[in-house]
Amino acid sequence: MPLLVPTPGWFVQSLLGLCFILYFAAQALIVVYASHRYVILWRRWRAGTRRLTGSDAPAEWPRVTVQLPLFNERRVVERLIEAVAALDYPGDRLEIQVLDDSTDETLDWARAAAARHAARGIDIRVIHRDRRTGFKAGALAAGLRSARGELVAVFDADFVPPPEFLRRLVPHFSDPDVGMVQARWGHLNRDGSMLTAAQAVMLDSHFALEHEARMRSGLFFNFNGTAGVWRRACIESAGGWSHDTLTEDLDLSYRAQLEGWRFVFDGTVTAPAELPADIEAFKSQQRRWAKGSIQTARKVLPRLLASPLPPAVKVEAVIHLTNNLAYPLLLALGLLMLPVLLGTRGAPAPLVWAIQIAVVVLGVLPVTIFLALGQAGLGRRLRVTRDVAAALVLGAGLAVNNARAVLEGLGHRPGDWERTPKSGTGPRPARGAAYRSGRGIKGRTEIGLAAYFAGLAAFACAAGHARAVPFLLLLSLGLGWVGIRSLRASAFSG
Fold first, then answer.
1. What's the whole-number mean pLDDT along residues 370-377?
2. Are 54 and 91 in contact (CB under 8 A)?
3. Cα torsion at 332, 417, 113, 231 (round to 10°)?
């Protein structure tokens, strides 16, 4: 009996079939994550605008410890300490800890600024660790051991909290079940560039829509690492700060809510902050967030799914914690497009139309609406079209950076906590030389893929698949923008 050997045609058909399966699987998951924005918008609309409770001043203000975790922040350290020292809160009920692990002149400037304010009666001290064990989580935990406050507020180096911050948020803790209160982030340099404008659009929708919808629907949401106040008992009952993920804030948030604590988001209180104006600094921040969210998902989801929580809470938590999987899925869609285009030459036109319309309606449209309504909800209608378009392009441009971070997050090594370099944007002039975000030539992968997707878009148009062109051009434009900015930033980084 002759041996049957597969023909090249059989092999090619099998390979195309596998590509189709992977493509449609990735497309289905992308649609789930993107169309979930419709769910968020529906929850936000259904919740309405009920007034938050707990806004009356307490008979006796609780003691608050303000923690300022720092590492090499010479450009912004004085601005931060000045703002926190100006907080309008009873002086005998306020303690400020400057948790400075710096290895440069930041430590000297922090000590000098703290000494100036201590001389006028403010309870402020600098705590320095010789070893940066546990990074930010380690610094917060170390400070908590000597803290005297029953409430703990945290501000990152790039924030400038308004004087009324504590007086506006602390009253929410009159409810003994409240473990954390998060304020909304503002943006000191929103109009600095298209990059900062795009970031602002993304963050505005995250706070004004996602946080509001989740809180008012009784779902889990997270402390954003800064501009929030914790009940100390909540931190301790949840097991304290942990550095086995790169998003210690997200990790503690879920552990605390699994212990039964309730979180509050107060969008009426805004803490302005500096957005990364350098693309490599922004990519570093995004890598940490993407990798840390996957690490946190691996850590807490087994316990959450095994808990007696309602199904709606579990489903929302899964989507929330794994949402960054959309980036490798987006990249996979682009890379699989060529075999899919080659394999659909003879496909019925109605089928191709149906698939592509579904992708637009359930994939691109909900993200666009979500970003636009985030701006409208905050009363920002000027340049909303331009800024939302920039946010969409920037999101596509992060596909390589964040896909790599997600894949690293699936591994077992926590990794190093990358600080985001600050420029000191704001009314107070920054001191000291600017920090560099890294050495080496950056952006080559993004630029190479941008050229590939541009060529693929031209091929799709010539082959009669014009409906695939917008998606390919979005990837090409986004990756090209990020890649070129990365190349320029690294070329002039010295």
1. 91
2. no
3. 90
User: Can you read off the two tokens belonging to residue 490?
Assistant: 């690294």
| Whole-Å CA distances, 320 to 94, 119, 203, 316 | 35, 46, 15, 6
Q: At what angle do helices 469-491 and 326-343 cross, to 10 degrees?
A: 130
Residue 273 is classified by DSSP as: E
pLDDT digit string, tens, across residues 19-40: 888 988 998 899 899 999 999 9
Angle at which helices 399-409 and 326-343 cross, to 10°: 120
User: Rounded to whole angstroms, how far apart are CA atoms 377 and 362?
Assistant: 22
Give the position of tokens 């900062």. 196
> What is the Cα–Cα distance from 68 to 140, expressed in whole angstroms?
8
Each residue's pLDDT tens digit, 301-311: 999 999 999 99
Give the Cα separation of 147 and 256 in Å (integer). 20
Instruction: Name the residue among 313, 394, 372, 322 with its Cα closest to residue 41.
Output: 372
- The model's confidence at residue 362, banded by pLDDT at 50, 70 and 90, is confident
Nearest alpha carbon to residue 149 among 94, 84, 100: 94
108's enclosing H/E stretch is helix 106-118
Which residues pair with residue 109 across a beta bridge? none
More confident residue, 42 or 358: 42
DSSP 34-45: HHHHHHHHHHHH
Q: How far is CA 130 from CA 66, 99, 107, in A?
A: 21, 12, 11
Residues 45-71: tens digit of each pLDDT: 888 766 665 567 888 999 999 999 999
* Single-letter code of the amino acid located at 293: S
Residue 369 pLDDT greater than 50, yes or no:
yes
- pTM, entire model: 0.91
Task: Give me the active site residues, please.
Answer: 101, 249
- What is each CA distance from 107 to 73, 114, 123, 174, 433, in whole angstroms? 9, 10, 18, 37, 15
**Distance (Å, whole) CA 57 – CA 55:** 7
